[in-house]
Structures are given as structure tokens and as C-alpha cells.
Write a structure and sequence with these properties.
The chain has strands at 18-22, 39-47, 55-59, 78-80, 88-94, 102-106, 109-112. It has one domain (10-112). The strands form 2 sheets. The protein has a 4-stranded antiparallel sheet, with no helix packed on it. The protein has a 3-stranded antiparallel sheet with strand order 1-2-3, with no helix packed on it. Helices cover 0% and strands 33% of the residues. The structure holds zinc ion (ZN). The site of zinc ion (ZN) has 6 residues, from loops.
Length: 114
């Protein structure tokens, strides 16, 4: 008889997650050549939970470095938690094009939307 082991639920930490940084020494804006300050944790990138192996990038409305979103004019996600094991993002994530995966990241776990 089959049983469901909830501890086998997919974790963000299984999907090769990395925090995304931006700017820093040597980085200039193409518009006017101004230097771009270094930012840390402006978003997270991880392998698509569906297994299609394309990367998912999710920019935060509240980056890890405490400053505002790096591209405020674009969609951002609200972040709670500052480790891959505790990360919760809102609202849900829906991939546009490709596999069209739709789901949530809650407490570092992957939850597929119905
Ligand atoms: Zn996918």
C-alpha cells in the first residue's frame, strides 16, 4: 500500500537557488555612464520546480540589503525570510511562456498551484 511522505516535498534548496546581486565596481549605466551602486539579494534564481531545467528569476519588492526594488517599474514579489530554508514569496509565481509552471514558495518549500 502506497503512503505519502510529506518530508519528500520539494524544497527550494534542492533547486540550486542563488541570491542575485547587481551593480558594483566597474558597472555603469549605459544611459549616462553613471556608476551603479552594489546591491545584494535583489532577487532569487532557481531551477524551475517542474523539472524543465530553465531558470526562474523572482525579483523582490524588499531586497535582502534593505533597499528598494532594483526595477520598481517591473513586477516584484514580497519576501519573508532571509535564507533559502525559510523563504516565503507572495503572491504566487507563474512562469510566462515555456512550461508555464505556477506555484508558491512557502517556508522554503515548493507548493504547486492547482
Ligand atoms: Zn518548468
Amino acid at each position: 500500500m502506497a503512503s505519502v511522505d510529506l518530508t519528500q516535498r520539494k524544497r527550494l534548496s534542492d533547486l540550486n537557488p542563488i541570491w542575485i546581486g547587481a551593480g558594483g565596481p566597474g558597472i555603469i549605466r549605459t544611459l549616462d555612464g553613471a556608476s551603479v551602486p552594489r546591491r545584494e539579494g535583489v532577487g532569487v534564481m532557481f531551477d524551475c520546480p517542474c523539472g524543465c531545467e530553465s531558470p526562474c528569476y523572482v525579483p523582490f519588492s524588499n531586497p535582502l540589503d534593505g533597499d528598494g526594488p532594483i526595477q520598481p517599474e517591473k513586477a516584484t514579489w514580497s519576501r519573508m525570510g532571509d535564507t533559502f530554508e525559510t523563504l516565503t514569496l507572495a503572491p504566487s509565481i507563474r512562469r510566462v511562456g515555456g512550461c508555464a509552471w505556477h506555484g508558491f514558495i512557502q517556508d522554503g518549500g515548493i507548493v504547486n498551484a492547482g
